[in-house]
Amino acid sequence: MKKLTLLFLLITSICFGQTITAPLLTPVGSVKSFTPNIILSNNTGVETSLLGSVKDTIKANTLVPYRPYRFELACIVTTPTLSLPNLALKIKLGTATVAMVNATGVTGGLTNAGIRIRGTILATGLSTQIVLTEIIQPNGGIINLSNANASFYTETVMNMVNSQALDITAQWSGLVILGTASIRSVWFYRFDF
Using the 8-state DSSP alphabet, how is residue 17 labeled? Predict the structure, then answer.
């Protein structure tokens, strides 16, 4: 049975042009994992990258049809008890915003409450992609997510013949009476398969 299986693999690899040891073409970024440690406080109303200067760049010609590029960013949020801050989040591919949460209320009295932003970019053609994202809140309802204030599915047209940077940004607004509201990016991870 073992010999038959090996023979089948050998014939398949010859017919389809792949050697047994050659890896499949995988979307390749410039980084796999790092700790950005970007802290954004509510005292600035500026949209700021949660990845900082080290962005994961999907290299040219590696996002091919039906080979997904997957990523995750873990953040922690802290808010004072007396606060009504709003937080907007955006996921950008190149210059295009491919997913977002409009400025929405954040729960007061949080200390290191976790938010994970996870996404998949799947090419459906040479220059068309589907972007699926999700925000996971393991500590419960940190930010209000609904169809009215967020978009988690996008069909986009990016020229992946060129390298495209992936970025995740945040922006505070709203009212904080005592103390400071903040979001800190603690870990970025790109899944390889």
Answer: T
Longest dimension (CA), the chain: 73
Residues β-bridged to residue 172 = 87
- Could you tell me the CA-to-CA distances from 26 to 69, 126, 183 in Å, in that order? 8, 14, 32
CA 52-170-51 angle, 5° bins? 20
Going through the chain in order, the beta strands assigned E by DSSP cover 33-34, 39-41, 48-49, 56-58, 69-78, 83-93, 96-105, 113-123, 129-136, 150-151, 153-156, 164-176, 182-191
**pLDDT tens digits, 85-128:** 999 999 999 889 998 888 888 888 899 999 999 999 999 987 89
Give the contacts of 36 (CB within 8 A, at least 6 positions apart). Answer: 50, 51, 52, 54, 73, 185, 186, 187, 188
Cα separation, 178 vs 193, whole angstroms? 46
Q: In whole angstroms, what is the distance from residue 39 CA to residue 76 CA?
A: 9
Provide the β-strand partners of residue 97: 92
Handedness of CA 79, 82, 83, 84 (dihedral sign): positive
pLDDT value of residue 5: 59
Task: Quote the pTM value.
Answer: 0.81
Q: Quick one: tokens of 125? A: 């053609």
- Whole-angstrom distance, CA of residue 171 vs CA of residue 90: 9
Structurally, at CATH architecture level, domain 25-191 sits in: Sandwich (2.60)
